[in-house]
Specification:
about 90 residues, mainly alpha, Serine Threonine Protein Phosphatase 5, Tetratricopeptide repeat
């Protein structure tokens, strides 16, 4: 079971363990970082999620830019100033 399933079941401690394992196994994988950022958003860890999101986009595949703009998992970040800055950086590249 992935992070989102654990969160939906209310298993937030297990979700946090999943996050730790995922980042330990693949610390530089932009897709892992992106997925963890989505989960962190649902856990209310906004700053950490934004940190990972910003970091993931440095080496992201092109399709990830569309994910950032349209993924409903990130809806709660859309009005955050840092999210807006991240979008501006994406559009400049």
């Amino acid at each position: 079971m992935g992070i989102e399933g654990l969160i939906e079941l209310g298993e937030t401690n297990r979700a946090r363990e999943w996050i730790s394992r995922a980042l330990a196994l693949e610390p530089d994988d932009p897709t892992v970082q992106y997925n963890v950022a989505c989960g962190l958003t649902k856990l209310g860890e906004v700053e950490w999620a934004l940190d990972l999101l910003e970091h993931s986009l440095r080496n992201a595949p092109p399709e990830m830019i569309s994910w950032v703009k349209h993924d409903a998992d990130l809806d709660s970040l859309r009005n955050h100033p840092r999210y807006q800055e991240i979008l501006e950086l994406i559009e400049q590249t």
